[in-house]
């Protein structure tokens, strides 16, 4: 999943739901999330990810995210806040400066 610009809340949630459906349909458990060009995730969307989307995704088998760091400071903080609120030992996130590094880390894991 690669973000190219700011999206509205509706767009952010629609894309997130599409990713979740893809994880379910394909039986996948790992995602590279490239937030390099994503300026910010709105506070209400951060709450939605933590309280709604991530619990459903983890329940569906989402186990690992290779997060490519945003070049925007406030989005890096927002992403870290979301990740730090995850209350599951079934989910891992690592931060990287490139998609290639994130992909290599995900390949090293034993899950799909």
Word description of this protein:
The chain has one domain (9-108). It is 51% helix and 13% strand. A 3-stranded parallel beta sheet has the order 1-2-3, with helices on one face. It is an alpha/beta fold and 112 residues long. It starts with 8 loop residues before the first helix and ends with a helix. It is built from 4 helices and 3 strands, in the order αβαβαβα.
Please state the CA-atom Rg, rounded to the nearest Å. 13 Å
Unreliable segments of 5+ consecutive residues: none
- As a percent range, the share of helical residues equals 40-55%
Task: Please tell me the overall pLDDT.
Answer: 91
**How are the strands ordered across the major sheet?**
1-2-3
Shape: globular
Topology:
Elements: H1 9-26, E1 30-34, H2 43-59, E2 64-68, H3 73-84, E3 92-96, H4 99-108
Parallel strand pairs: 1-2, 2-3
List its salient traits.
13% strand, 4 helices
Task: Tell me briefly what this model is.
By secondary structure, this protein is of the alpha/beta class. It contains four helices and three strands. Helix content is 51%, strand content 13%.
């Amino acid at each position: 999943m690669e973000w190219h610009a700011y999206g509205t809340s509706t767009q952010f949630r629609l894309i997130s739901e599409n990713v979740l459906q893809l994880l379910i349909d394909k039986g996948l458990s790992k995602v590279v999330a490239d937030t390099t060009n994503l300026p910010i995730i709105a506070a209400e969307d951060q709450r939605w990810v933590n309280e709604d989307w991530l619990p459903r995704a983890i329940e569906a088998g989402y186990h690992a995210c290779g997060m490519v760091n945003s070049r925007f400071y406030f989005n890096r903080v927002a992403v870290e806040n979301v990740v730090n609120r995850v209350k599951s030992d079934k989910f891992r996130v690592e931060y990287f400066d490139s998609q290639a590094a994130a992909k290599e880390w995900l390949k090293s894991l034993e899950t799909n």
